[in-house]
Amino acid sequence: MMKNTAAVEKSTFSVPVALEAVNMFGLAVFLVSNILTVLINLSMDTLQASNAKAMAVLSIYLASVCGTALLLDQLLFKKKSD
Hints:
Blueprint: H1 17-24, H2 26-43, H3 51-76
Helix pairs in contact: 1-3, 2-3
């Protein structure tokens, strides 16, 4: 049986910075999102919220969770310039 000796090409896929940061700091992002969920559920009646209020809360929630991941990425891993 012959082995394939061809060189394996390196992948050139690009991953969005936010996705990479969420992947790297999964536990921290999970904990922040759970704490934010509890705070939202305790501070407002989510079942009676209007559509506009619900979308505003979801937008702020998403920005907070992604912002936390990006902030951790910037603080803990300084990007090296290639």
